[in-house]
Amino acid sequence: MVTGRVADGETGESSDTRTSQATAERRPETHVPDGEDPRRCPYCGFELPADDQYRLHLGLNHYDKLNDVDQQAFRDAYQQEEAELTRFRIIALGGLVVLYFGFLLIYALLAT
Amino acid sequence: MDAGGRWQRMGVRVVCLVAVAAPLVALLSEPAIAHAAALRGSTSTVEVPTWLFLTTGGGTVGASFLLASFVTDRAFMRSVHDWGFTLPAPGRLLRLGGQLVGLAVLAATVGIGYLGPETAYRNLAILAVWVGWWGGYVASTYLLGNTWSTLNPFRTVASLLPSLDRSYPDRLGAWPSVAGLLALIWIEVVSPLADDPRLLATTIVAYTAVSGAGSVIYGTDTWFGRVDPISRVFALFGRFAPLTQTADGLSLRLPGGALTDPDAVSGRAETVFVVAVLYVTTFDGFVGTGLWARLITTVVEVGVPPLVGYLSAYLAGFGLFVAAFWWAIGLARRFGRTYITRVALAERFAPSLVAIAAGYHIAHNLGFILGLAPSLAVVTGSPLSPPQQPPVLTTLPGWISGLELAFVLVGHFIAVWIAHAAAYELLPGRLEAIKSQYGITLVMIAYTIISLWIVTTPTVTPPFLGGGGV
């Protein structure tokens, strides 16, 4: 699914036929646990567990085929994700700082 | 989504993991001072406790994951991996020349193996196979490009034979290669293949016979493309290499770029094969450590036959590696919130391990190759009457050992990046793509610590085997 068509989806370069062929061939195998109700992509049949992921998948892989409402929904989901990413980045930065200064301190204490 | 609970559970898990990992690191760091240059008996030491040295290695790999997590632009990642251009392909004449060279080296190795001097370090067969081929040539398959499909003398011999062209059973997949690779390295570890030129020559003849028979049954392309473990290892390493032969010519890419292709590995058996490649080089190093010498001595004292001890450890270790990898993929499936099967996830994450295997191979062999290269050159000059003491480089400059450690770490950095790219190609959510790498990153950190320890710990002769290599 995603693979080579991701970049194309974002820049909107690929033709519809190429996208659908490629996604059909490369869609990774999925397994849905019993009792779950997946969202299924109408263009390539890829199953996704949550609505936000479904919106993102549509936008990343089938952007050209979406109507204005779905395109807007994709952009919203992408923006929404941006906020969560920012939170993660702050934690990651904190982790890097802890790693760096942690080791610096230990080296200062132990390596003579 | 109940984010608070998730983070809490994750925190508990991290604490458990640290609780398990800390004694492991402590166990590995028994000698208080790390021998950062102890590969071949060098004496320089680093005045840092071993546990600190090992956790620093693990920490840098963790840091590289955190740094990679800042890159979330798919188009950019793709442009990095697709960077490259095409060069004209070498002609047919060069190909024929390569085949002839391969055949000549095979004939010389077997011939001198039987006829040359019996002393290992004076015999061309031993030096050509272990220094020239397993050390130097293997390094060329991941540093430059995989030329084995052309040079492979076993294939050239097999292609002269008629073939029945039976269809290869698809359900076997890459499993025979997994078994073949484990068997080859098992023979290499427990038999004096690196000491006895006659035995080495006989093994090569047997290998030629087996691959010839396989090619007669299934055809050379099927045998060397799907079954032969050595060809498969080189094909994987060739994926890491910057140069690849394509229909249009030689294509040049960044090292590791081709490992992000969706077809790099396919099927459960091939992912296990990648883990096996990483595992066998590790085990080869592990039996040369003092820890293993003490362990096996204790086990043998209890009354277990030495070979049973070696085999159990070999298979148990492999099981452990596969289980750790599979656990990491399970975490990827959970944290990535995806329905993609474990096998499909493993297919994309496994190629990252090839970069680690390449980095580890060069770290493990660089000092060895440089030290014995003069021997190889002199003995090649007069294979039947080599000097009594072929020249060796006994003292390598100190920075060589630093270079070895750098290779281990660079291999891991590239691996972290490849896993990062794979996650972004599989999962639509950017945050899920980052979280899906938690497991594989933890596995990589653990492996960095283990491999740094093996590379830097002083090597001892594995007990009970009656041979210690060149």
Topology:
The complex is a heterodimer of chains A (112) and B (470).
Chain A: H1 5-11, H2 16-26, E1 39-40, E2 47-48, H3 51-62, H4 68-110
Antiparallel strand pairs in A: 1-2
Helix pairs in contact in A: 1-3, 3-4
Chain B: H1 3-28, E1 33-34, E2 46-49, H2 50-68, H3 74-82, E3 84-87, H4 92-115, H5 124-143, H6 148-151, H7 153-159, H8 175-190, H9 197-218, H10 220-227, H11 229-240, E4 243-246, E5 249-253, H12 268-286, H13 290-302, H14 306-335, H15 342-349, H16 351-381, H17 399-426, H18 430-435, H19 438-456
Antiparallel strand pairs in B: 1-2, 3-5, 4-5
Helix pairs in contact in B: 2-17, 2-19, 4-5, 4-7, 4-9, 5-11, 5-16, 7-9, 8-12, 9-10, 11-16, 12-14, 12-16, 14-15, 14-19, 16-17, 17-19
Outline of the structure:
The complex is a heterodimer of chains A (112) and B (470). With 112 residues, chain A is mainly alpha-helical.
Give the strand order of the largest sheet of chain B, numbering strands 1, 2, ... along the chain. Answer: 3-5-4
Domain count of chain B, please report it: 1
Strand content of chain A is under 5%
Number of H- or I-type helical stretches of chain B: 19
State the helical fraction of chain B.
55-70%
Main structural class of chain A: mainly alpha
**Sheet having the most strands of chain A:** 2 strands, antiparallel
Structural class of chain B: mainly alpha
> How large a portion of the residues of chain B is in β-strands, by DSSP E?
under 5%
* Terminus-to-terminus distance of chain B: 59 Å
Individual helix count of chain A: 4
The value of Rg of chain A in angstroms is 20 Å
Rg on CA atoms of chain B, Å: 23 Å
Return the average pLDDT of chain A rounded to an integer.
78
What is the 3D form of chain B?
globular
| Strand order of the biggest β-sheet of chain A | 1-2
